[in-house]
Design brief:
By secondary structure, the chain is an alpha/beta fold. It folds into two domains: 65 residues, no CATH class; 150 residues, 2-Layer Sandwich (Zincin-like), CATH 3.30.2010. The strands form three sheets. Strands 1-2-4-3 form a four-stranded mixed sheet. A four-stranded mixed sheet has the order 5-6-8-7, with helices on one face. It has a three-stranded mixed sheet with strand order 9-11-10, covered by helices on one side. A hairpin with a 4-residue loop joins strand 10 and strand 11. Helix 3 packs across helix 4, helix 4 crosses helix 5 and helix 4 crosses helix 6.
Length: 229
């Protein structure tokens, strides 16, 4: 492990040697809350430190993002697809999550289970939502998808495979409903056009007329849901 101090802020970097790497690269792993330095074999320590020094500004900027990462908390309300819920515990019920009106109940006694249970519940909500919405969009244009896959991705909101599998990040259910609908329209449109040609964007617009505004929102605000663990 490499430890640096930049502007009085400690930064930890995990070095990894890849035999096929031709150059050094830095990545911020939000899930593990640390940096990874990938490098070729037999790189000298002097070259490593020179590379890190060259990227000090980037490291410092990204380190500030780590301080913004937050865990699910009982002190917060949670908005799921535009509906706001108050998070409460019920220690007498078995472990699980269920919604009643505007309350999201969490059963179980272990504090450390809260985040795990909520993410599992949100994945189930995401699967139901994207299955329903994708089916609706496909029906409008005579398209078909193979299956819906829900993932925990911090770099891609969605994807469409050549076999017709539509994949979505479960974090989209924490964005406004219209934003989640836009991403769904985007991936469904790839079932017909596996590119980003004018014909593709025309189909997206037919499914989601406000896609430009929603796409911009995602670029500017998507980090707010990526930073939740």
């Amino acid at each position: 492990m490499i430890s640096l101090m930049i502007n009085e802020i400690p930064i930890l970097i995990e070095p990894k040697v890849h035999l096929r790497s031709r150059s050094m690269t830095l990545r911020l792993n939000l899930r593990r809350k640390m940096f990874t330095l990938t490098m070729p074999p037999f790189v000298s320590q002097k070259k490593v430190m020179a590379f890190l020094e060259k990227h000090e500004a980037w490291l410092y900027h990204q380190q500030t993002r780590l301080s913004e990462i937050s865990d699910f908390s009982l002190e917060k309300n949670l908005t799921i697809l535009g509906i706001s819920y108050e998070i409460r515990r019920d220690l007498l019920r078995k472990k699980g999550v269920w919604a009643e009106d505007s309350i999201l109940w969490i059963g179980g006694t272990r504090e450390e289970d809260i985040s795990i249970l909520l993410i599992k519940y949100l994945k189930e909500v995401a699967h139901a939502f994207f299955t329903k919405t994708s089916t609706l969009y496909c029906t409008q244009f005579g398209l078909n998808f193979e299956r819906i896959s829900i993932r925990d991705s911090s770099t891609r909101w969605g994807s469409c495979s050549s076999r017709g599998t539509l994949s979505f990040s479960w974090r989209l259910v924490l964005t406004p409903l219209s934003v989640a609908q836009y991403v769904c329209a985007h991936e469904v449109s790839h079932l017909r056009h596996m590119d980003h040609s004018p014909l593709f964007w025309k189909l997206v617009e037919e499914l989601c007329p406000q896609y430009k505004v929603l796409r911009k929102w995602l670029k500017q605000n998507g980090h707010t849901v990526v930073n939740i663990r």
